[in-house]
Amino acid sequence: MSEHQIKVTTRDGHELSFGCSDDCDVVSAAEQVEIKLPSLCRDGGCGACVGHCDSGQYVLGQFNNTVLSNEAVAKGEVLLCRTYPKQDLHISAPYDYAHIRFGKQNMRQATIIHLEKIAERTVRLKLQLIEDEAGLAVEFEPGQCMELEIPGTDIRRAYSLANTGNWHGELEFLIRLQPEGKFSDYLNQQAQPGQILNVYGPNGAFGLQADSFSPAIFIAGGTGLAPFLSILRRMAEWGEDRAIHLLFGVNQENELFCTEELEKLQQQLPSLTVTLCVWKPAEAWSNGFRGTPADALQQSLSDKPDGYDLYLCGPPLMISAARQVAISQGIDEQKIYSEKFG
Ligand code: FES
């Protein structure tokens, strides 16, 4: 077993390095020295840990091809949770230094204060942090997520935060109930206000590119709306009025949620346009676009393709469909940012 040196350069030019043996993946090796690189599933399924290998030999473990295409692999893109070095590696990371956490995994405890079904198969979960030596404040970048642990087990699931950082320790999540999902079963059968959970994070590098002032299109599939709500709420708090078009897609209209919050945000952010997309609506439904967000994107880009940043969050199929439309309509691939979940 050989030890190799991994050098990571972040988008804003910071460098960090650590050792990694050839039987260990890069994300786990970093974690052993208390460097938490952005990652979610740790299993090659979400794309949160993507990077570009500029030099050195490596082997990639199995991963989902919808997350990283063969063309991307041929260009040197890697999923760091599936990258096993065979030599010293130099990796360029597509996120800033601020998205990397240092020190022990940050575990805190929080009480359930609100649990509500807000649409077919979707719940809103609010937690209140219990005060500890870190105080009550909760700091995170809009777009990041936290891992929630089912009480009495070591089973954790990562969910995007829908609110913004705050001094009073409130965390808000929008969670899709998955058939036979372990955390979904917990929410359905055991969770109730007053219960205490362990929470880990924040983590993840999805979020608005701070160095771009281009107009943006946000595409949210189902609970993929959560990180966009966080970003828009932060923009409203800070009075940032950049042109944003949000396309929020679901399969049927009874799966829509947070429409009142979106209306309120439109009042606070005059440059925000919201299009609700329902793939298979009832005949009488007339509150938005009838079709998928990818179809709506095609329509909205056909007369103004240039200069957009595109942000995608939702199921892998929706993301690849929207991505294909965007590229075929001339959006620069480098300006497409995405986070997938199953
Ligand atoms: S954390 Fe590597 S693909 Fe999900």
From TrEMBL:
<dbReference type="InterPro" id="IPR001433">
    <property type="entry name" value="OxRdtase_FAD/NAD-bd"/>
</dbReference>
<dbReference type="InterPro" id="IPR001041">
    <property type="entry name" value="2Fe-2S_ferredoxin-type"/>
</dbReference>
<dbReference type="GO" id="GO:0051537">
    <property type="term" value="F:2 iron, 2 sulfur cluster binding"/>
</dbReference>
<dbReference type="InterPro" id="IPR001709">
    <property type="entry name" value="Flavoprot_Pyr_Nucl_cyt_Rdtase"/>
</dbReference>
<dbReference type="Pfam" id="PF00970">
    <property type="entry name" value="FAD_binding_6"/>
</dbReference>
<feature type="domain" description="FAD-binding FR-type">
    <location>
        <begin position="105"/>
        <end position="209"/>
    </location>
</feature>
<dbReference type="InterPro" id="IPR050415">
    <property type="entry name" value="MRET"/>
</dbReference>
<dbReference type="Pfam" id="PF00175">
    <property type="entry name" value="NAD_binding_1"/>
</dbReference>
<dbReference type="InterPro" id="IPR036010">
    <property type="entry name" value="2Fe-2S_ferredoxin-like_sf"/>
</dbReference>
<dbReference type="InterPro" id="IPR017938">
    <property type="entry name" value="Riboflavin_synthase-like_b-brl"/>
</dbReference>
<dbReference type="InterPro" id="IPR039261">
    <property type="entry name" value="FNR_nucleotide-bd"/>
</dbReference>
<dbReference type="InterPro" id="IPR008333">
    <property type="entry name" value="Cbr1-like_FAD-bd_dom"/>
</dbReference>
<dbReference type="InterPro" id="IPR017927">
    <property type="entry name" value="FAD-bd_FR_type"/>
</dbReference>
<dbReference type="GO" id="GO:0016491">
    <property type="term" value="F:oxidoreductase activity"/>
</dbReference>
<protein>
    <submittedName>
        <fullName>FAD-binding oxidoreductase</fullName>
    </submittedName>
</protein>
<dbReference type="InterPro" id="IPR012675">
    <property type="entry name" value="Beta-grasp_dom_sf"/>
</dbReference>
<dbReference type="Pfam" id="PF00111">
    <property type="entry name" value="Fer2"/>
</dbReference>
<feature type="domain" description="2Fe-2S ferredoxin-type">
    <location>
        <begin position="4"/>
        <end position="97"/>
    </location>
</feature>
<dbReference type="InterPro" id="IPR006058">
    <property type="entry name" value="2Fe2S_fd_BS"/>
</dbReference>
